[in-house]
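User: Can you help me understand a structure? I only have the sequence.
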Amino acid sequence: MRELKPYRTMSGLRKAIDNGGRFYNFFTTADDHVVTRAELAKAAGVFSVGVNAFLFLEMAQQDLDSTHRSKIFALLDEDLRKAYRSGRPRILLPSEIESQGTSGKSVITTGYPRFVEDRTQFSGFIMIPIMAGNVTTFAMIPIFDKFDVYEVFDDRRMRKPNSMIATKRGQRLTHKGPIRFGGILRDLKFKDKTRKSHKFYLETLFYTLL
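Assistant: Let's start by predicting it. Here is the structure, written out as tokens:
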């Protein structure tokens, strides 16, 4: 999980993503007003363009107006523009995630988090892959074994419906104001169906303190 501070100017973001790629990307050039997959991946801190890179780009330009966002989009090469259109994260309120979200898809949501300290209040489980030779199986473990968990609400009144956010374990968020989270929606499992409170949790990749 990485804190991401949005760019306040289009030129700042353009410089960050029009970076020439890594040293082995021989066919990319910095500051040529064309952004390739390799350059966006480098800016996002990953090695190939995918969910992480598109979340980075979307969250990095949240403080720019629509005109400047359009100009950033125009910098992307044709192949990257097509991929970004299809892989662009959805922006949902915390109260909308349960009804409008889709498992496996990227989402950006902004709200007021409340840390879940009492584990007896929440009994969600997650599936993790386990390799046994050439075979991958899945085990169900309590979500608290891998993540810190927050309930996130639309506003300070903290009224439901809300959403569940999972962040890197031990990296406690103490910010008192709203936080923007970007990540991937995952299915939540419950051994006791009568206690099912949420069907998704958002596995956070990036966050922005507001």
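Now, to help you interpret it: The chain has two domains: 2-88, 94-209. The CA atoms of residues 97 and 163 lie 6 Å apart. Let me know which part you'd like to focus on.
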